[in-house]
Specification:
heterodimer, A: mainly alpha, MetI-like fold, 14 helices, 74% helix, globular, B: mainly alpha, two-stranded antiparallel sheet, 77% helix
């Protein structure tokens, strides 16, 4: 009876199924199917993973991955880099948004916005290729500039001590304009009457910013925090173009490490690693959605 | 008087921060353009030069063929793949998002939305590898169709449409129903014409995003014949013998189309990307 009613409801709305059909087909074929396939492969022995009759090994791949000191080190490095990159990007983006939004800057704000946003739409491969050469010790202009100012040389991507800073700079160049734009959109929507009231009450500029403006930026901060965290956990292209995980594994982040395993045909372990990451991202996203929902309810 | 002097000093200080930072963000582009005109000896001798010694175009002769394929093939692939995946993606996502917004409670529609969210949450570069197996099973490996179909699906497109259809007043649809219009007529004659600004924004942003794609194209391709400009640039970047000015010239060719598109439609791109993100 219930089934008949469901079928009847679906049949009466068949035109909507027709509208959604291509979208559903793409989601199934290029989303759900590969995800299911990946989870299935994570339970099989790498050598037989792609054959017609794979041999199942239970959780052996997960055990291997979780006991692999390289994976654990890579995970720790990824988390540390993510924390650094999120803080650096959001702090810079917020500072630039406040600067550009300042009523004292009347001319030129569009130029500043364009300059910071252009790298966002620049193909990441092209941007990172240029940065790779900018950091180069003999071709690059960064060390030449430091040298002519009498400052010590910057090791760039060649040195263990500076490689994290170097890719952080390149990634900040590529991403910060996006976060800045979100802050600017939020700043444009704020209630300016509150600031006038604060000025009448004799609040200092710092007090006004800290207690009147910053609380109103909560939505942008939450959105940027979620976006940047997911963004930097996935750090990949900059590693492929600039460092190949080196020097001394210093930039061998999880996504690059998993990709290398795929390259070496260690499919079982690589997909197990992917599934672990997937679980982390889902947990993180659910937490973030809750946060956003609570924000919306306020 | 003293007060105005201080205000002037603050303004000057703010410009003294904003101008150098903006120029620093633009400098890599300038350096890239200089690099394609200068030979290796000139760059090594004076990396800081702000104007090329000569406008030598031999770098473009060096990149006329990259990895055994003509440059124009990569350029054609870039335009063809980006345009096709953008057009297809917009058509499919607009219809899908509309159906999900109009009738969210139809049997299976909640599952479809959930499945799509799950897909975009999966770590992208790790999704691409099982996609390789799927494309292989479908017999689309090394084909344009495989690349275009995979690139057609994306989160920002969906969220921008979703946002627009949610804010659509119900009266518009009810008026259509009263006039006896079919659901197809309501969508194609009433809603989509109203959605023109959103369609333009989504088209522009999808084009910019798909132009930059490289990993899925590299994975689904069987040979450089289906590579786009960023993929060609990446493989040249990995070659030992490639000259510096040739790499800069190829980076320039890869960047120029999106830079032009962005400068022409800056506001739409920045506002659209921010809106698509806030929804997601």
């Amino acid at each position: 009876m219930a089934l008949a009613a469901t079928i009847d409801l679906a049949w009466r709305n068949r035109v909507f199924y027709l509208f959604a059909a291509p979208f559903a087909a793409l989601t199934a074929v290029f989303g759900l199917w590969p995800i299911a396939l990946s989870i299935q492969v994570s339970f099989t022995a790498s050598g037989t993973a792609l054959s017609a009759a794979p041999s199942y090994v239970g959780l052996a791949n997960y055990a291997t991955v979780l006991a692999d000191p390289l994976f654990l080190a890579s995970m720790a490095r990824t988390l540390l880099y993510t924390a650094l990159a999120v803080v650096a990007n959001l702090a810079f983006a917020l500072a630039m948004a406040m600067l550009i939004d300042s009523p004292r800057l009347k001319t030129g704000t569009m130029f500043f916005r364009l300059a910071l946003f252009l790298p966002v739409v620049t193909p990441d491969v092209a941007g990172y290729v240029v940065w790779r050469w900018l950091f180069d010790r003999s071709f690059g202009s960064i060390n030449a500039a430091l040298g002519s100012l009498g400052l010590p040389e910057f090791g760039g991507i060649a040195s263990v001590d500076t490689v994290t800073t170097a890719i952080l700079i390149a990634e900040l160049w590529h991403h910060a304009g996006f976060y800045m734009t979100i802050f600017l959109a939020n700043l444009a929507m704020r209630d300016r009457a509150l600031e006038e009231a604060a000025a009448i009450d004799g609040a200092s500029a710092w007090q006004t910013w800290r207690h009147v403006i910053l609380p109103q930026l909560r939505p942008a901060i939450v959105v940027n925090l979620v976006y940047a965290t997911i963004q930097f956990l996935k750090t990949f292209t900059v590693v492929v173009v600039m460092t190949k995980g080196g020097p001394a594994d210093r930039t061998n982040f999880v996504s690059y490490y998993a990709y290398q395993l795929f390259d070496q045909a260690r499919y079982g372990e690589a997909t197990a690693m992917a599934t672990i990451l997937f679980a982390c991202v889902i947990a993180l996203s659910l937490g973030a959605f809750k946060l956003v929902d609570r924000e919306a309810a306020r | 008087m003293n007060h105005r002097l201080r205000a002037g000093a603050t303004t000057a200080a703010l410009y003294a921060i904003a101008i150098p930072i903006s120029l620093a963000f633009l400098y890599p582009y300038w350096w890239m353009c200089l690099g394609m005109f200068r030979n290796a000896r000139q760059v090594l001798g004076d990396p800081l030069r702000l104007w090329p010694e000569q406008f030598d175009l031999s770098a473009f002769a060096e990149i006329a063929r990259v990895g055994g394929v003509d440059l124009w093939v990569y350029a054609f692939n870039s335009f063809a793949i980006t345009t096709a995946s953008t057009a297809l993606g917009i058509a499919i996502t607009a219809m899908g998002a509309y159906a999900l917004c109009r009738q969210p409670d139809l049997p299976g529609f909640r599952w479809l939305r959930f499945g799509f969210l799950l897909t975009i949450m999966y770590p992208y570069m790790l999704l691409v590898i099982p996609v390789y197996i799927v494309v292989f099973k479908l017999g689309l490996l090394g084909s344009y169709a495989g690349i275009v179909l995979f690139l057609a699906l994306g989160p920002i497109q969906f969220f921008l449409f979703d946002r627009f259809f949610r804010t659509l007043p119900r009266e518009v649809i009810e008026a259509g129903i009263c006039d006896g219009a079919s659901e197809a007529q309501i969508l194609f004659r009433i809603i989509l014409p109203m959605a023109k600004p959103v369609l333009a924004t989504v088209a522009l942003i999808t084009f910019l995003i798909n132009w930059s794609q490289w990993f899925p194209i590299l994975v689904i391709s069987r040979s450089p014949d289906t590579f786009t400009l960023p993929v060609a640039l990446l493989s040249m970047n990995g070659e030992l013998g490639a000259s510096f000015r040739a790499i800069m010239a190829l980076a320039f060719v890869t960047t120029l189309p999106v830079a032009i598109a962005f400068v022409l439609a800056q506001r739409r791109v920045m506002e659209g990307m921010a809106a698509g993100a806030v929804k997601g």
